[in-house]
Amino acid sequence: MFFIGITGGIGAGKSELLTYIRKHYYCEIYLADEVAHLVKKKGTDCYARLVELLGEEILGTDGEIDKAAMAGAIFGNPDILQKVNAIIHPAVQTYLMEKLGAARENPEVELFFVEAALLIEAGYKGLVDELWYVYAREDIRRGRLAASRGYSEEKIADIMSSQLSEEEFRKNCDFVIDNSGELAASFRQIDRKLEAFSWRD
Questions:
Q1: pLDDT at 92 over 90
Q2: pTM listed for this prediction
Q3: Distance of CA 134 to the CA centre of its chain
């Protein structure tokens, strides 16, 4: 089984490519953002530590951590953000490593993917067999974010400035998918890369 990390800047189109991979290959795919939500659920060690750090005001009426309230508690405080990441990132990694171990025991799983914008920063380069970079030109990414999410130019610029540069992504990744054009062209790049693996119609 092959373990692949997929990363790239916001608006690069990682989700569409993973949808295609999920449909056509024998794989398991985990999105780090979704896993981060799971490991913060009430009753987990991560939940308890976050509530202890940030206070009960981050909880919603259902007792679960409220995403917006938590973001508000962190906003503008790099020290608190660092402490929050030091709680969440290891919990996400532990969850993923458990899933990876189970997938290795399943003969039907040939590929195991983890997607996150921060894979490189979180140290996954040393864990995966390959790291893939989904690239798209900045003007394309800006257009997608404005159209699909309604983000303002200011918000897009702010998010992009906080992420790694194209140079850093390319330097750290083993394979680049250019997703600036038609999706069909991106799918062909993936199929060439994964031609040694089983195809599922």
A1: yes
A2: 0.91
A3: 12
